[in-house]
Design brief:
two-stranded antiparallel sheet, 3-stranded parallel sheet, alpha/beta, 31% helix, single chain
Length: 162
């Protein structure tokens, strides 16, 4: 397989660190909030403030253009009275369909996605229509060939090839 021309990564520190280790010299890495872990309200599943992520030397090469509004949103959340709604599996499964919009934005055909076990599980069991998909192991890589129509939230074809 050719190396990915683009890498999309969740804004959580653990996935940013993974992307930095796997793709140390890659110049086309984009941090996208749509790929974050399921919102449980617990600290490990909460992104660090975007300005803090930008200050890390190891993440300096990552494009965080889409996170610019996060600083403002994070500031607003500090003043909220009610906590943000926690996501259940069904809600996360719906959110995974946003991946197709991200892929449609990409000018490349080979994209790596660095995200979380729960996200990937719901992507495979939902939009990829593989309800018996086994749980991901830590650090596991799966490769799919996917066909979809831009603008749609569903897949025409998804086949695991590695």
């Amino acid at each position: 397989l050719p190396p990915p021309a683009e890498v999309l990564v969740s804004p959580l520190t653990r996935t940013l660190e993974t992307a930095n280790l796997i793709f140390p010299n890659h110049v086309n890495i984009h941090v996208r909030d749509e790929l974050r872990e399921r919102n449980t309200g617990k600290p490990p599943d909460t992104p660090s403030p975007a300005n803090k992520l930008r200050s890390r030397h190891s993440f300096a090469k990552f494009s965080m253009n889409r996170l610019d509004n996060l600083c403002e949103l994070e500031e607003q959340k500090l003043h909220q009275i009610e906590p943000e709604e926690e996501e259940d599996k069904a809600m996360l499964r719906v959110r995974t369909s946003q991946l197709f919009h991200l892929l449609a934005e990409s000018p490349t055909k080979s994209v790596a996605v660095v995200t979380h076990k729960a996200y990937l599980r719901e992507l495979e069991r939902g939009p990829f229509e593989n309800p018996s998909s086994p749980e991901y192991k830590n650090g596991e890589i799966r490769v799919y060939r996917v066909r979809f129509h831009p603008g749609n939230d569903f897949v025409d074809y998804a086949r695991r090839i590695a």
